[in-house]
Specification:
This protein is 70% helix and 0% strand. It has 300 residues and is mainly α. It has one domain. It starts with a helix and ends in an 8-residue tail after the last helix. The protein is globular, with a radius of gyration of 20 Å.
Length: 300
């Protein structure tokens, strides 16, 4: 009985650790991009297949993405004070990391089989591509994550979450203007993470664009991307609400760069506050894109 109790506690602890690896605090990009092809008018929530896809882009997909990341980033993660929680990810031992690829395979396999059976060969190729991108990003001899600035450009792989949504739910393909906007969104989100990780990445000898150009220039690069996104939203989609939201964010980043933080690192409590704020703003913008449908209808 005691052994059984210990075993259950061990399993529960392991499951919590795997959940931390998937970074629930950073699920919002895959959820947000998955929802892009929908509007409230379609009544998508009534279709069970939507919810199976939604489930996939939460824990399973992020377990793959961040699990492979952690598997190859032991040294940097040990130096990273923001790790060890559900917001920014787990701190795993070498023993835990050794078992991670097989755990990821067990989680992913049922979804790959089901989606491929349901949607056909195009879905299988799409999922295979998403997995290959993550392998190229994390593993030698490619390890694009340490080949600046290509580690930013490969974030375009996140856009394939939207293509996955289109194929699975039998929706119209996204306009090319929307694909460009989503790509910039993915670049900007990645740079934000690099900025927060500059110090631990330096200590671990890890090369990223933010490490090479420095904190202030990386923030300026992020600001340029935000302003470009604002332009696209305003002139390509007539989306004044989302453009206005990014204008507020850009104004804050401008003050951050030139007045408040400048080249100083954020504290752990500040990074957590930013993480919660990103999740709140992501939720608000999800509701807006589903209500307005503007990102599906470019105006030129």
């Amino acid at each position: 009985m005691l052994l059984s109790s210990v075993g259950k506690k061990g399993q529960k602890k392991a499951m919590k650790h795997y959940l931390k690896i998937s970074r629930p605090g950073l699920w919002f990009p895959t959820i947000w991009i998955y929802l892009i092809p929908f509007t409230f008018e379609t009544g998508f929530w009534k279709d069970p297949i939507f919810w199976i896809g939604f489930l996939f882009v939460t824990f399973p997909l992020n377990f793959l993405v961040y699990g492979l990341n952690d598997y190859n980033d032991y040294k940097a993660d040990m130096e990273n004070d923001r790790k060890g929680n559900y917001l920014f990810g787990a701190k795993s031992s070498k023993e835990q990391l050794a078992k991670l690829p097989i755990k990821i395979s067990w989680v992913m396999a049922p979804f790959i089989l089901f989606f491929s059976f349901y949607s056909g060969i195009i879905m299988l190729l799409l999922l295979a591509f998403m997995i290959i991108v993550n392998i190229l990003y994390n593993f030698k001899p490619f390890r694009i994550k340490e080949r600046p600035p290509f580690e930013i450009f490969i974030q375009v792989g996140y856009v394939f979450t939207a293509f996955f949504s289109v194929v699975l739910n039998d929706l119209e393909m996204l306009p090319w203007e929307t694909v460009i906007y989503l790509s910039l969104f993915a670049f900007q989100a990645h740079i934000a993470g690099e900025i927060m990780d500059i110090d631990p990445d330096k200590k671990a000898g890890k090369k990223t664009t933010a490490v090479i150009i420095g904190r202030k220039k990386a923030k300026l690069l992020m600001l340029v991307l935000l302003i470009t996104e604002m332009y696209i939203l305003f002139f390509w989609f007539d989306d004044y609400f989302l453009a206005g939201f990014l204008a507020v964010f850009s104004a804050w980043l401008f003050l951050d760069i030139f007045i408040f933080f400048k080249n100083k690192p954020y504290s752990l409590s500040q990074m957590k506050l930013f993480g919660y704020a990103m999740n709140f703003s992501a939720l608000a913008s999800m509701i807006w894109i589903l209500y307005s449908g503007k990102l599906l209808h470019p105006v030129f």
